[in-house]
Structures are given as C-alpha cells and as structure tokens.
User: What shape does this take?
Amino acid sequence: MMGLSLALRDVSVTADNGRVLLQTGDVDIPAGQTVAVRGPSGAGKSTFLNVIAGLTMPRGGAIHWGDTAFHALSGAARTAFRGQYLSMVFQDHLLFEELGAEQNAAIAAGFSPRDQRATIRAAAKQALMTFGVHRDDLPPVARMSGGERQRVAVARALARTPDVLLADEPTANLDRQTADRLIEDLLVHTKRHNMTLIVVSHDANLIMAVDRVLGVDSGVLRDA
Ligand SMILES: Nc1ncnc2c1ncn2[C@@H]1O[C@H](COP(=O)(O)OP(=O)(O)OP(=O)(O)O)[C@@H](O)[C@H]1O
Assistant: This one.
C-alpha cells in the first residue's frame, strides 16, 4: 500500500451553458497527505470530488493520480482504475438497501481474492463496532436513520484499504461524540496505511486534524 499522489494542472469544469463550475490552477497533493476541502454551499466542492474521481469530465487541464494520466483514460479504464485505487464516501451513500450493515460494510469481500475476504470481513465488523452500528437488532439499511447509514458507508470504505479515500461531509448528521470517534478512526486508518485522504468538510475538528486545508470559493480551488 503506497498511497497515490494527485497532481492537478489547470483543471476546469464547465456546465452545459458554459458557466465555470471549477478552476483548480496547479495543485499537488503528495501520497499519504490528508486534505480537507471547505467552502460555501454551491462553491464547487462536490464538483471537485466528482472530477478527481472521474465521475465528471474536465473541460480542460490534466489530472494525474500517481503516474497515471487519469484525464486521458477511456471510460472503462477510468472505472477500472477507480475500482482498484479509489474508495468513496459520497452524500447519497450508495448502499445496498435490502442488505444489513455487515453485508454492506463487507461488500468488497465479494470482489476480492479469496485470501483477502476474511480480512475485509473482520475489518468491516471492527469498523461497524467502532462507529456503533453493529447491533443485531438493526434493520436493513433501507430503514436505518441518516446518521446510521452514514456510519455504515464510512465503515464500508475503511473495510478495504484503498490508496485514496474521497469523502463528502462524512461527519454531517452525526452527534459530536460519534463524529469525533469517526474522525480519529479515519485518520488513524489513513495514516497507518499511508492512504491519501481528501475530504469535503465544514467540521472544525476534522479540519484541525488533517495535514492541509484547501478552500473552494466560486469554483476557484486554492490552499486556505
Ligand atoms: N451539471 C451541472 N450543470 C450546471 N450547474 C451545475 C452542474 N452541477 C453542479 N452545478 C452547479 O455548480 C455549483 C457547484 O456545485 P457543487 O455541488 O459542486 O457545490 P458544493 O460546494 O458541493 O455545494 P454544497 O456544499 O451545497 O453541497 C452549484 O451552483 C451547482 O448548482
């Protein structure tokens, strides 16, 4: 596990009507750095996560993850790269609604080599316990509360150890104590495995805990 660096060179994203949604200039994030991204509502934070995850295509500029020219990959290659190196905790969670917390958190086991499955299941269980969503009486995630779903989504992202973790407001909707536990766990896990962490957040405790803070204002990304 090496983590991956991210190099952005003048990446721009525009809406269909030509409005500029994001302009990054040149930004370099070394492998293993933990970075918070903050900015006002509508500033372009989700657009930023989407473009570095390859879910939105830039209009111009270059995105390198490690040695890979990510912006130049075909759609299929981008999807394969994402599956291998990136893990995401996004606001809509993308959980499997009929399954329980443990099956969701350990979902990566189903796509992993046989000899890694037990490790992933154990890590999933551990993460669920840490975040207090490991009771036997919990319903399928379809009927869980917003905060419970959020904790399951983070546990799932941590159950495998990706090179890069991208997260959108992972502590929103959580009480202070649960949020602080999540922050600590997230950072211990990312540092232990030298993962690169890029997290959109307004949480002052999270912002204090990371290596670096970037700001997005009216679509312009820069060190804050
Ligand atoms: N495909 C699109 N076409 C046009 N405008 C878009 C498109 N996608 C996003 N936008 C606009 O781009 C701006 C940035 O949106 P984005 O979701 O990145 O903001 P954000 O900083 O994540 O906001 P929030 O904190 O409210 O989630 C918003 O004004 C949004 O309405």
